[in-house]
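Record 1 of the preview.
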Amino acid sequence: MIALDSNVFIYHLGEHPDFGTYAKELLKAVEDGQLTAITSELTFTEVLGYPGMSDEQAIIAEREIKKTNVKLNKVNADTLLLAASLRRKYNIRTPDAIHIASAIRASATQFISNDRKLLSKKIPEIEFVALANIKEAILFPGDLKRSAP
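->
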């Protein structure tokens, strides 16, 4: 199982010129059942609270996130306690710590992000993979290995 940072959804929904295609392919593989993925419930706050997004756009974005079949991992006290520990130990921002704690608690093996600062960290419990390098790490049908659902 893989875990997704909220920026994967932002790039997909915003049709980012450089990373939108990577995000779209990744989310399509999850939607089609070729990969299993989770994200923290915090993703809703980060994506739907994006500055300049209208209420109508937020409704559409929420629907799109739910449509992907990415499992939403609850943010609970255990997740927040682990996030606090990760934040202290690795000097990472609170939202990133919550996402990573959610991933670890869900037994994800990889965390997909495009946050350069975060990707530079080494956290033994999980492997960080840059969105742009997704095909080298998680193979899609034909040229990538499949994770077991």
